[in-house]
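Reopening this one. Same input as before:
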Amino acid sequence: MKPNPNDISDEPRRGGLECLVAGIRATEPSTVVADHVSVNEANLVVRGDRYDLGGYDDVIVFGGGNAAATVAQTIEKILGVRIRGAVVIDNHAVESNDAGGFLDRHDATVVTVPGRT
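Same output, byte for byte:
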């Protein structure tokens, strides 16, 4: 009997698919940011480098490019109330609800630059 290329019930195909899905998830912008950016007390930690936020009253988020709105949302989850504003340039239209309410919670400006996706 000829094997069905769409059948993933056998172990090698299922394992291959699981590896592929894990690889895709590992490269999603929100995953990458969450894995490399954190706040430890008054320090912003980016890939092990520490930045003292204690001397700053305002944190402004700037971002541009593909997935900039997604990255801004992830940064918001990390920095929370420390964020006082944002400017985000993305090539996809972003509505407040699409950005998880980011635009409503901050003095945020999102500019959409149509282009290739």
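So the earlier flakiness isn't reproducible anymore. For the record, The mean pLDDT is 80.
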